[in-house]
Amino acid sequence: MTNGAQPRIQWLGRWGFILAATGSAVGLGNIWKFPYITGEYGGGAFVLVYLLCIMAVGVPVMMTEIAFGRRGRGSPVDAIRRVVNESGGSRGWSLLGWMAMLCGFMVLSFYVVVAGWSFSYLWKTLVGGLSGSSVDDMAAIFAANNASPLNLGLWSTLVTVVTMLIVGKGVQAGIEKSVSWMMPGMVLMLAVLIVYGVFSGGFGDAMRFLFSFNVGSLSSEGMLAALGQAFFTLSLASGAILTYGSYLPQSASIGRTALSVALADTVVALMAGMAIFPVIFANGMNPSSGPGLIFMSLPLAFQAMPFGTLFGFLFFLMLSMAALTSSVSMIEATVSWLTDNKGMSRTKASWLAGSVLWLVSTLAMLSFNIGGDWTLAGKHFFDWLDYLTSRWMMPLGGLGMVLLAGFVLNEQSFRDELGLSRFWYMVWLFMVRYVSPLGIGLVFVDALGLVSLQIHSHWPWLLLGLIAITLLGEWVRPRLRLLP
Ligand code: TRP
């Protein structure tokens, strides 16, 4: 290899990367976040735009990230620097790596709080703390759980410690092993809930809510949220997938791998929607009740079904595990950077990163109790972490990476790395040069209020614009020398 990348430890099994990346992708984003933002943005239209974003932006960005990781064999900062160096580009591009690492860290700071909810509900199913007969009772339980900083802090601290323990040991064996039985278990639990939902009386409403695709009703805010969710749920632009890619053996196919991960992730998200909304409609709950949505709806379903306590226990166990395999991936980039550059042992790097994480996540946790009115522009700290990362940092980081891969790097470097057939390589190039950047760009321009997109009526113009810009771009590109 010519870019200075060193040989690196690799995944153990053939499935190692797919399992670990799926473990990273499938998490609270699928089961907690997807249903509640779908509820907030009104259902079907949001789901459609989200699926578009996964295919048109998510998969190409994921392939690009894996390729950066595998070619550069390092943390995001080092890998991007090496790959750019190989093409003679500017060192400044490694800023993208810094932003990604920071983004992963910021996500984890609020993620451990939500994972803490899941852990505490797991505990409650054991000690019988989840009985109540109405949505209001459940909302009260959720509120009471949040009200004490000591209680909530205990759970998020537990999540932080467990995450750092796993990362400190080295992720390979731990993650590879746990994901292989956890994923099937999760899908099985969701299937049980869906079957229950079919008989609950709310199933028809739920399916209509999720799959009646009338795009006209989607706000700009909703489009930005759909794009952000696509990035969040695939763990993109935050160092996780890139760092996991740096452990990927040379023989694996990047395209097939990325597609499998995206597909598995999408299936779990849609199943979660189909499990949760029937309960919500059958109990007359409001689908837009925000981050507490699954914690207030599902316990009601568990109570009403046979063996509910057992299923509830298994469900929150799976959810907690899914959260852990994701949280591990978010801090892996930082830990890998610390060990590669600062000569720290893995254990030491994990505890250092974990201590900083603990401080920031404690601040995020306080948003639900004593810090409830420490707000800025109407959002408290927890919301700010979520908003800044998924709405801005991830899409911008993804945009930077596709532009870098599409226009700045030597064509040969990614061509070798991706190992695609000529046809699929061209498709990938078209996606990273035009489709993804224009998609991300449009959503931003729309969100800033510069234009107002109506996909259902503007799509012919959008398509024409895409073709025109592609032709223009391909004409201008060889005439412009982007590299020295
Ligand atoms: N994708 C995970 C989920 O859906 C969350 C996650 C893991 C993540 N790693 C990430 C989100 C990195 C952003 C960045 O729950």
Mean pLDDT: 88
Task: Tell me the major beta sheet.
Answer: 2 strands, antiparallel
Quaternary status:
single chain
Kindly state the number of beta strands.
2
CATH topology: Amino acid/polyamine transporter I
Whole-number total of structural domains: 1
Radius of gyration: 22 Å
CATH architecture annotation: Up-down Bundle
Helix content: over 70%
What count of helical segments does DSSP give? 19
Beta-strand portion reads under 5%
Shape label? globular
Bound molecules: tryptophan
CATH class placement: Mainly Alpha
Low-confidence stretches: none
What are the salient characteristics of this protein?
single chain; about 475 residues; mainly alpha; Amino acid/polyamine transporter I; two-stranded antiparallel ribbon; about 75% helix; binds tryptophan
Summarize the structure in words:
- The protein has a two-stranded antiparallel ribbon.
- The protein is mainly α.
- Helix 9 crosses helix 12 (254-282).
- Strand 1 and strand 2 (379-380) form a beta hairpin.
- It has one domain (14-476): Amino acid/polyamine transporter I.
- The protein is 76% helix and 1% strand.
- Tryptophan binds next to helix 1, helix 2, helix 5, helix 10 and helix 14.
Quick synopsis:
This protein has 19 helices and two strands. The protein has 484 residues and is an all-alpha fold. The two termini are 22 Å apart.
Write the layout of secondary structure elements.
Layout: H1 16-25, H2 28-40, H3 44-72, H4 76-86, H5 94-127, H6 135-147, H7 149-169, H8 171-198, H9 203-211, H10 220-233, H11 240-245, H12 254-282, H13 293-304, H14 308-341, H15 346-366, E1 375-376, E2 379-380, H16 381-408, H17 411-418, H18 422-447, H19 455-476
Antiparallel strand pairs: 1-2
The structure holds tryptophan.
